[in-house]
Each structure stands twice: as structure tokens, then as C-alpha cells.
Amino acid sequence: MPWGERILMDLRAEFVSAYLEGVNSMSALCREYGISRKTGYKWVERYRTGQSLCDQSRRPKHSPCKTPAETEKLIIRTRQEHPAWGAAKLLKVLQNQGIHDLPSTSTVGNILRRNHLISPRVSAIHRPYKRFERAHPNELWQMDFKGDFLMENHQRCYPLTVLDDCSRCSLGVHALPNQRWAEVRSVLVSLFETYGLPDTFLSDNGPPWGNGQSRGMTEFEVWMMQLDILPIHGRALHPQTQGKEERFHRTMKEELLSVTTIKDLADAQRQFDAFVTMYNTVRPHHALKLDVPCKHYTVSKRRLPNTLSDPMYDDKFVVCRVRMNGSTRYNGKEYYVGSPLADHTIAVEELPDDCLRFCFYNFEIAKFDLIDNCFISRKIFRL
Prior knowledge:
This protein has 4 domains: 3-48; 69-125, no CATH class; 140-296, Ribonuclease H-like superfamily/Ribonuclease H (Nucleotidyltransferase, domain 5, 2-Layer Sandwich), CATH 3.30.420.10; 318-382, no CATH class. It has 11 helices and 14 strands. The protein has helices spanning 3-20, 26-33, 37-48, 69-81, 87-96, 105-114, 120-125, 181-195, 219-226, 243-257, 265-281, and strands at 140-145, 149-150, 156-164, 170-176, 200-203, 230-233, 318-321, 327-330, 333-336, 345-351, 355-360, 363-369, 374-377, 381-382. Strands 1, 2, 3, 4, 5 and 6 form a 6-stranded mixed beta sheet that branches. Strands 7, 10, 11, 12, 13 and 14 form a 6-stranded antiparallel beta sheet that branches. Residues 1-6 have low confidence and may be disordered.
């Protein structure tokens, strides 16, 4: 018996003895020991009937609504198979498996806590918060590299992930040996052939998607505009812009990378494919009201063309060709628009506010202030 409990038992025995010996009245003794008269009479009654003076469990003798042992074992086993899933996800998965008479979400949570399978710290980390989202599938795709890691063959893997913003459907996790544009382009061609084209593509501001603070276009941006896809970038040092990708990466780390070993790129791709299938078809998603992403995704009706068409510009534009050094000439002056645009035609328009607007296909790519003699914008907008 713990020390504190022994002291408490001694005090109770001392109180009962004093009362039975008539040392003082019940009221006086209760004031002395700092308890109520009801508690005092309870201790005396227990002593007289031969009961222990220890605190008794308040658990009812009969619990008709208690979760059956087999159901509790099933909940624990499912949690052990998916240690990062909370009570709501576990309950939804079991319901989807056709299991009936399951307890409430709060009861599942209590079962996890009672079996030391969940902690308040972890619960706080996984508390969801509201993010923006597009209304329809393929309106916006998000793309990013998950942090690279060392495989058992002592080579590094660079997982490239692509996510549909509306449905949260993972369109693929690709095990790449590096982050070069050639590797990324090959993956995107495969995705476009499978799922069609999105309206907008969100990526971070670094290579190979963007140039950060440097000048001009990237090959990725040029290709996107040729396919009539708006390329946009998250703000530097602001990962919340790609919050769904960040959350997907955390899930991937918790449910795959931290609990398995990966031998090589081929093994990585096998495990990534299995994870994507589970994520899209089995794992419930809170933002989808515990539905699975695949039920909310449909492929795009916009298909990848076999060949790229030349741009068509309105008569209000002056058409200029970009030189191999990335510059174009307009009204006797050179303007640098980016070497990936080399040998392409762009359109230039003079605006009433003493600015030049540079366009490529259906997009504005830059603005130049003729008064201050400098570019005032290099952000891409759809016309």
C-alpha cells in the first residue's frame, strides 16, 4: 500500500476509534478531521460491518453498455496496424468493413488511452484546422518534394508528391534519384496521360518549379503555359500555402517512412504505390467527413495533347521572338524575359499607364514601367 494511502487509513481508523470510545461528538470529530458528518458516519458504518476503510471503486457492478472484449481487441489491433490514426478514423474503417455494434468515437478514444495507445500531446498535434480548398477536382494540383532520405543501398531517394486540392486524392508519390527538371517532367507527362490536365499547378518558389527571387521564366512555367495550365508558387518561408502537401508529407512520414526500411528506388516505389492506394481508398479523411479521397476525385476532361500548338495573339499585341539569350527586342530596346523562352514568340502590349505588358500564350508574364525603366512584375496571370 502506498505511503500516502497508509497515512489516510491510519487517520480513518483513528477517527472511528475516537468516536466509538466517546472521545467527542460526531460533529466535533468531523470538524477536527475536516470531513462531513455524512463521511464520518460512512467510515463508522464500514468499520462496524467489517468493510475496509480504503476508498472503494465507483465502477458499477454491472455494465450492460460496456464494449465487448472482442470489439475492444479489434479496436486495439486496428490501432496497432495504423498507429497514427485517431479514434474517428479507426471507427470509420471498422464501419466500412461491415462491423456493427461499435462504440462511440469518445469510447474508442477512452479504449486507446486506457491501453496507453494515445497521449494528450499527440492528440494536440493532430487536431485539425480549416484550410482553403477548391470546389472541384483538377482545379488545383499541389506538388512538392518530400524531404530526401538515405536508403539501405546508401543512395538518396527524393519522393515527389502530387495532390489534388479539392479531393485530397494523392495522384502519386514518385521515388526519384534527384530533383532535376528532366526527372520531374517525365513524372508529369505520366500523370497528365493518366489523369488529364489541371487548371492550376501550385508548387514552391524554388527550382525546378520557380526561380525564387531571380529573373525570368523556368522550363516548368513555360511548359505549363503551353498546356494552358496556370503555374503559381507558394510564398517564400510560408509553407502554409501548400498546407495540404505539408500535411500529406507528415502522414507519409508517420505511417510509412518512420515504420519501415527502404532498400533502393525500386523498393521505395513499391512501398509508395501501396501507401497511395491505402491513402486514397482505405484511410478516412477528416476534411472529407471521414470519407476516402478516391470517392471525391474524377479525372480531368482536359487531355494531354500529342503536339503543342503555336500561340495565337490578338491584333492589339506586337509579336516578338525571344533570342537565345532570353531577351526580346521592342521599339529598339531589349527586355530580358528568360532563357527558357528562347526561340518562342511572345506578345507585347503598350498600356495607358506607361507600362509594357509581356504575354505568352494565354498568360501575362511580366510588366515593365517605361517611366522608371524597370520590371514591376514578373508574376504569371491568366489573361
